Amino acid sequence: VEPNTPHKAKKRAKYRKIMSTEEEHRPEVPTSFDGIKTNEKSDEEFRIYSQDDSPQRVVDHYRDMRQFQTVDFYRRMEEKYDFENGAYRKLMTIEEAFEALEDYVDSSDPDLDLPNKLHLLQTAEGIRRAGHPDWMQLVGLLHDMGKIMFLWGTGEDGQDGYSPDGKQWSLGGDTFVLGCRIPDDAVVFPEFNEINPDMHDKRYNTPYGIYEPHCGLDNLMFAWGHDEYMYRMLAANDTTIPQEGLDMIRYHSAYPWHDKGAYKHLTQPEDEDRLEWVKLFNRFDLYTKDEENDIREEFVDDLWPYYKDLLEKYGLQGKLKW
Q: Does residue 249 contact residue 231 with C-beta atoms inside 8 Å?
């Protein structure tokens, strides 16, 4: 694999839409989560990752993710889930995709043991209650739907979503940049870094690896998962969700970047503006998780008409390419 060239960067960045970087467009990221939470959990009770305290399924998930997420694997998934020249795997409406996701349970999440559909509804409604723009509410509803890849994936590729015991290491979980050294101080379970084959390849195990200094966020290959797939799917269907929303979808699992401040030697100054939007979204993605707040029964009669209108507003009505 050669370093990213302008041609390759252009190929990946072609989905971008113009995003304003004017100061007044920057969001205010809340520092208190009391108005977001619907449960009594303390901040310290979220995202507990250790071999002693995390469920075994979570430990196993991240061990597999660190072992099998490589540059070669990314390239293979990029080809498998290609949308170039009108390619797709299935035509479905968003509502049909929701039905397919009804029984999906995320094996990488230590905070929620309920179907993913509930988490999406909780996130969207939390953003709606907070009065954020309707496109961000829609992002809350859609952000994890890329896990629909389990319909075409296998356990061998880490895409078995039919059981919480299935291999899901390329469907969900915190993502890290492939093609350069994995930062021990920015990822969960850093003790698993050494089992990643790329960390024993001199092309990939340096701080810059295959990248040029400050090449920019969109030129980085994050571990393949639902984020990258859903971003590409929405772009392929010509959604009008603004770039801020597409960034939330594409990078919300990139905790080493948006939570730990990693990869500053690879990002550009304008990526800092984008970071604030992703951090804002993350507050709702994380702190609205609540097993006691099951609002799925409200979806069909009370909530779906509202979100159906938003889907139409942002060009996502009818059968879409998946």
A: yes
Tokens of 206: 């340096």
Residue 44 carries which DSSP code?
G
CA-CA distance, 5 to 257, in Å (whole number)? 22
Q: Which pair of tokens denotes residue 279?
A: 């951090």
- φ, ψ (nearest 5 deg) of residue 221: -95, 105
pLDDT digits 0-9 by tens, 136-166: 999 999 999 999 999 999 999 999 987 667 8
Give the separation between CA 43 and CA 53, rounded to whole angstroms: 16
Q: How far is CA 94 from its chain centroid?
A: 18
Distances, alpha carbon 246 to alpha carbons 92, 128, 281, in Å: 20, 18, 11
pLDDT(230) > 80:
yes
Listed residue (296, 270, 282) closest to 36, CA to CA: 282
Q: Within 10 Å of residue 241's Cβ, how many Cβ atoms?
A: 22
Cα-to-chain-centroid distance, residue 41: 23
Residues written for the chain: 322
Mention every residue, 6+ apart, whose C-beta is less than 8 A from residue 240.
313, 314, 315
- Decide: residue 90, CB within 10 A, 0-12 exposed, 13-18 middle, 19+ buried: middle
CA distance 13 to 103: 33
Q: How far apart are CA 318 and CA 5, in angstroms?
A: 37
Report which DSSP code applies to 178. Answer: E
CA–CA dist 165, 108 (Å, integer): 10
Q: What is the pLDDT of residues 245-299, one digit of tens each?
A: 999 999 999 999 999 999 999 999 999 989 999 999 998 988 776 555 565 566 6
pLDDT on residue 192: 97
Higher per-residue confidence, 55 vs 84:
84
Closest CA to 172 of 57, 61, 272, 55: 61
- Rg, C-alpha atoms of the chain: 19
